[in-house]
């Protein structure tokens, strides 16, 4: 039994432990994504929400709350809130990135249109604020509304930093905090706050979510250059085509030879991309070891996440969260 | 002096009476629309917010609060919240409608791109939730988050109702409540709530805002068929080109001859629009008097708004709000 359990992925163990709570979250999500007047809304959201998303963010909220001894009803509202915010940002991201595939299926903007994606995203944002308001807890409202602002700010920053070779690792970190880590850290932090955890524990939960989110996003960016369509359900090379400055590219630009620099200027700044350019980008990064260097950064953030958990009570869920931090980076090794 | 004052438009009298409060609102808006990390954000918002918008919604909040005797600081936060929600919906509307002009200037989606409009809109939504959270008042949070959901739902409904000749007046009313009246009524209602007004007064403020918003939108829809570019700073005929079923069209479709029905099917359902079709649409509506019938509906809503004010204390601001209800419809006569 122990060996069998160890063979399970940490996220599956979290899902199993929190199965009852997660069932309540799924019920609430299904209830609140409905719309009496506009049937287009549940059509679009069902496409996304039932597409087998990993529900990672709501699991983080539920785990944080339970780990801190919460036994009230509102961690379910907060978990659904976090999933709604996430789904809304996915809908808007697909419009912004002009994506055609998400989780191995056509995106909503392709199946319906950009208009529906924008407006249904807005609807889910509004629903998420309704849900969090129902908790009656001003502190979680402040945390989640701040996180929403950081997310939007990070997305705008990514938009203006794309195609700009001057983008450095500090800008990258701000973008990553916005697009991923802000919601991870808010998800864990509100779990602690609703449970009435101590200031030190709440801070530790924030730091865990922040570091986990950064590790997660670095790995996602690496997979975009190294994964396969089948594995990640997303077109490899998307970031390259969208001329995004992700960590392995930023590191490669920093040490580029004159010839390599000319290559990056052509494909990223000018957007003049030809057959074989993606392979050449991979070869240049391999030559400088920047994929491996980015993986080391991800490992460092994962270790930071694990360390933050030391401030939390000993608990099965704490061990699963620690394993999750390691697992996030193992995806690429 | 009395004659001079009477000659001023009601909104100008509200602006003058509330000048001190409005200055505080403008300062707060300027402060909160900034972004340390992403300069694109204030560029886009300044373009919209400083474009001489009428600031009608924040004036409604300030007037409602003052009229109910409020002397705290938070009506300013709520007024800024309402303007941020409004500006965010304008940014997203322009993407959805593919508009090229707003308030007589090129739209943000044309000056920058759709991506910036989507993401900066999201940023303003998030900022609006931060602002309302700062009031610490759970009831205003519930009212404004509900209004946001109704707004988004109304926009989706409008999207699916467009091009559909079965759209009737009851669907139109839902769309109009979503796109306009929900924010008007939330604006006035939260003004009363923050002032600690009685349940009866809060209900009256809600009803005033709701009826004013419906009258306002009916008039806006009429102007789209009858105004001039110079007067309304918007391209006349936009609704026709976007195949929207607005009130005068819905009334004309309901009484159409077989030949007229074929015309509406071609231009609205099939979207096959040719030179002279907009003029023909106007002629058909004039023939059935549906523009005038819609104007009568607007007058009825304006009267309803005025009547709701009877439940509120006698006050100079109350008189201005009453005059505003009449003025909104006078725009087209």
Explain how this protein is built.
- Chains A, B: Pfam families: polyprenyl_synt (PF00348).
- Chains A, B: Its EC number is 2.5.1.90.
- Chains A, B: It is an enzyme of class 2 (transferase).
- Two copies of one chain form a homodimer.
- Chain A is mostly helical and 333 residues long.
- Chain A has a single domain (8-330), classed as Orthogonal Bundle (Farnesyl Diphosphate Synthase).
- Helix content of chain A is 75%, strand content 1%.
- Chain A has 18 helices and two strands.
- Chain A has helices spanning 2-7, 10-17, 19-32, 40-49, 56-67, 74-97, 108-111, 114-133, 138-161, 169-194, 199-226, 229-232, 238-241, 247-254, 258-269, 277-288, 290-308, 316-330, and strands spanning 101-102, 105-106.
- In chain A, strands 1-2 form a two-stranded antiparallel ribbon.
- In chain A, helix 6 (74-97) packs antiparallel against helix 10 (169-194) and helix 9 runs antiparallel to helix 10.
- The longest helix of chain A is centred in the middle third of the chain and has 28 residues, at 199-226.
- The radius of gyration of chain A is 20 Å and the shape is globular.
- Residues 227-233 of chain A have low confidence and may be disordered.
- The A-B interface holds A 35, 37-41, 89, 92, 95-96, 114-116, 118-123, 125-127, 129-130, 133, 136, 138, 141-142, 145-146, 148-149, 151-157, 159-160, 174 and B 35, 37-41, 89, 92, 95-96, 114-116, 118-123, 125-127, 129-130, 133, 136, 138, 141-142, 145-146, 148-149, 151-157, 159-160, 174.
């Amino acid at each position: 039994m122990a060996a069998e359990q160890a063979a399970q992925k940490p996220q599956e163990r979290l899902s199993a432990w929190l199965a009852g709570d997660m069932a309540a979250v799924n019920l609430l999500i299904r209830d609140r994504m409905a719309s009496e007047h506009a049937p287009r809304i549940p059509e679009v959201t069902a496409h996304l929400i039932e597409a087998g998303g990993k529900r990672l963010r709501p699991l983080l909220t539920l785990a944080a709350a339970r780990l801190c001894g919460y036994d009230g009803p509102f961690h379910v509202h907060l978990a659904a809130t976090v999933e709604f915010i996430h789904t809304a940002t996915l809908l808007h991201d697909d419009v912004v990135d002009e994506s055609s595939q998400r989780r191995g299926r056509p995106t909503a903007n392709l199946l319906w249109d950009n208009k529906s994606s924008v407006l249904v995203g807005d609807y889910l944002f509004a629903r998420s604020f309704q849900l969090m308001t129902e908790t009656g807890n001003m502190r979680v409202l402040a945390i989640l509304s701040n996180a929403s602002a950081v997310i939007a700010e990070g997305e705008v920053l990514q938009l203006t930093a794309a195609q700009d070779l001057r983008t450095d690792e500090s800008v990258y970190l701000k973008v990553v905090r916005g697009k991923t880590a802000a919601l991870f850290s808010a998800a864990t932090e509100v779990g602690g706050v609703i449970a009435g955890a101590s200031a030190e524990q709440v801070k530790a939960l924030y730091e865990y979510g922040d570091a986990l989110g950064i590790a997660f996003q670095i790995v996602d960016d690496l997979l975009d250059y190294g994964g396969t369509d089948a594995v990640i359900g997303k077109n490899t090379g998307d970031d390259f085509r969208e001329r995004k400055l992700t960590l392995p590219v930023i590191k490669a630009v920093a040490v580029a030879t004159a010839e390599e620099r000319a290559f990056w200027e052509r494909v990223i700044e000018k957007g003049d991309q030809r057959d074989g350019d993606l392979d050449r980008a991979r070869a240049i990064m391999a030559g400088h070891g920047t994929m491996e260097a980015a993986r080391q950064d991800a490992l460092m953030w994962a270790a930071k996440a694990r360390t933050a958990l030391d401030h939390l009570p000993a608990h099965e869920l704490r061990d699963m969260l620690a394993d999750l931090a390691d697992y996030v980076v193992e995806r690429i090794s």
